[in-house]
Every structure is written in structure tokens, then in C-alpha cells.
Amino acid sequence: GAVVSQHPSRVICKSGTSVKIECRSLDFQATTMFWYRQFPKQSLMLMATSNEGSKATYEQGVEKDKFLINHASLTLSTLTVTSAHPEDSSFYICSARAPVEGADEKLFFGSGTQLSVL
Amino acid sequence: GENVEQHPSTLSVQEGDSAVIKCTYSDSASNYFPWYKQELGKRPQLIIDIRSNVGEKKDQRIAVTLNKTAKHFSLHITETQPEDSAVYFCAASWKQAGTALIFGKGTTLSVSS
Question: Quick check: B89 and A44 CB within 8 A?
Fold first, then answer.
């Protein structure tokens, strides 16, 4: 399937610092990418929809000033967790729809970023 | 918006038995229903999907059925194996490229040998 690359895979940071997570589509162009957050033993919760060249669309309850999303090119979206606090510790995972030969588009996921805020 | 309910939350079966996981969705406009398998600490992997113009789809030991009228769809795994043990998520969305998937809460499947 299509490849979505996400970096870093793991981040440990101090409370109050900012962390940037990158999500790249390696073999296709993604005008739209999605950012999810997953707490331990819970489901994937949609945080925001990242749109290339325009503002991201945030889900209800997600602070747009805290979770900054930039989608400056057709292959890169970034999520910056600003002034991170321990409650922001979670597994963050991006995804993008990609064309699949012989089928309609399917959603592929990056490898995820485990964020731990001390 | 869309809401997806998934049952059961945990499922334990003996190797060789079948496992069934059920999901319901709320938005009648949803027309794409994938299933993902996620192992601990890893990304979700698409295992099978179905679109609203099809009632059933099968891929070896895995099958998915869709009842549009009742707005529910199910994952069927036959001849389960220990390596099938994982968390399974159902999801629903519109077909359009800009629409995200909304996930169910997940089912932890344990297959004992």
C-alpha cells in the first residue's frame, strides 16, 4: 500500500516545551491529511483535518492554538504541540487517503509518535 | 456528525473458532466501512473494507457484511489463529477524499491455543 512516514517515533520532553511531529506521504500527493490521538487502550480520536494551503479544521474540544497544524506542501503536514503538559502525553498518528490501483482511495497511517511529557 | 459503536470491547476465543465483531453507525450518508487491526504500539493496518454498494466481501479467513438499512456492519474471522490476537477497529466515513474516518472504540481479540 501507499507509504505514510511519520517522525519522530518517540519523544520525551519537559513540561512547557513544544514538540513538532512530521507526517509525509512518500509516493503520492495528499491534499488532505488527518491527525488522530490515541490514549492507552482507547480508540483513535480525530483531532483535526489538515488541508494543503489552507487552515486546518479542528474537531470540537481540540485547542487550535495548542495543536498547530501546517500543511505547506502536498506531501508534508506537521503537528506542533505547543507548551506541552503531562496530560498531552499520548500516541499521535497521522493518516492520508491514497489512490489504490483497482480500487477507490484508502486511508493509510503513519507509524505514530509516542509523546511523553515529564 | 458520525458516531460509531463497536461491540464487544473484548473477545476471547479458542484457536480455530470464529470471531465476530459488530459495529453500528449513525450517519446514513456514510458509505465506506473499513476494518483495521492494531498491534500494541504500532500503526493500524487495514485488513478489509466494504463500500455501501456491496453487502458482503470476503478475503480468505476474513469477511465483512453490511446492512445499510439497519446501519450496521460486522467483521467475521474464521479459523482464528494466535497471531490474530490484536485490537480491531471498525470505522465509517464518506467516500469523498476530504472526509476523515470515525472509529469505533475497538475490540481486543485474544486467541488462545
Answer: yes
